[in-house]
């Protein structure tokens, strides 16, 4: 991955590389290099080249620090892909409810796990016994045993089960509220996979993300969802705002521009568990 912009750290003149100026004069106008220079110490050095070609920045400037260390939103989805169209059909079919709909959510989770999660998180080798009576390399999710799958209850439970089927040695914790994720649940955990069927505004997901970061800021957190409302990940959304202070990774089967939030007979949780009589 290439850097968005280079920062040339400039020290005392007697210690500077004599060939660097020529390299920079070539790389900036003709090689597409975008760079600025940081003088160390800041107030006592002459800048390299000229300040139009290589602008000077102050590394203690809060805006500069924020731009260097800014977090961001990583959003992966399969909207428009043929597999997504097929898998989402039973999930959107109003005639399919209860166990059949739960199974559809599991299948979607299987797909997202093998298409996205294994690529984002990575794999590790482990020995397996081949039918020819020899040991060969098998593969599983990186740090699978130190991975915690957290379904947001109750809508996230079927998809979380699907993720767990793909990563069978991962831990599973049902959670209805962010406070259900305790410090002891995160002990020794490397990766948390938060699972929900639908992300509407993103409020619930953000609350869970903040809870996990509050307990352990070093844990990697990935969100898995069946559908994400477009407005939840647009500029100005709550998720985008929080992504300025923490890294957020979301994996979804599809993105929807339908702003309707289900309730009663159209609520995903009610359809999953045959409780559509509830408001």
From TrEMBL:
Domain Phosphoribosyltransferase, first and last residues per copy: 82-275
SUPFAM superfamilies the record matches: PRTase-like
CDD domains: PRTases_typeI (cd06223)
One matching Pfam family: UPRTase
Protein name: Phosphoribosyltransferase domain-containing protein
């Amino acid at each position: 991955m290439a850097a968005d912009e280079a920062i040339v750290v400039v020290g005392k003149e007697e210690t500077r590389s004599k060939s660097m100026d020529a390299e920079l004069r070539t790389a900036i106008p003709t090689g597409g290099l975008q760079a600025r220079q940081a003088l160390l110490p800041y107030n006592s050095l002459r800048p390299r080249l000229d300040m139009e070609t290589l602008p000077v920045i102050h590394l203690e400037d809060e805006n500069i620090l924020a731009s260097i260390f800014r977090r961001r939103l990583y959003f992966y989805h399969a909207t428009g892909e043929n597999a997504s169209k097929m898998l989402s059909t039973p999930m959107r079919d109003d005639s399919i409810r209860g166990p059949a709909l739960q199974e559809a959510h599991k299948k979607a989770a299987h797909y997202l796990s093998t298409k996205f999660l294994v690529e984002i998180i990575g794999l590790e080798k482990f020995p397996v016994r081949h039918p020819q009576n020899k040991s060969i390399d098998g593969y599983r999710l990186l740090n699978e045993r130190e991975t915690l799958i957290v379904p947001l209850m109750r809508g996230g439970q079927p998809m979380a089960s699907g993720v767990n089927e793909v990563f069978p040695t991962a831990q599973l914790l049902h959670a209805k509220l962010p406070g259900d994720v305790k410090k002891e649940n995160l002990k020794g955990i490397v990766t948390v996979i938060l699972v929900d069927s639908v992300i509407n505004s993103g409020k619930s997901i953000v609350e869970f993300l903040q809870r996990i970061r509050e307990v352990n800021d070093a844990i990697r957190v990935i969100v898995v969802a069946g559908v994400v409302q477009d407005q939840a990940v647009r500029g100005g959304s709550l998720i985008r705002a929080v992504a300025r202070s923490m890294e957020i990774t979301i994996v979804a089967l599809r993105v929807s521009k339908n702003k309707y939030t289900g309730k009663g007979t159209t609520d995903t949780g009610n359809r999953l568990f045959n409780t559509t009589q509830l408001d």
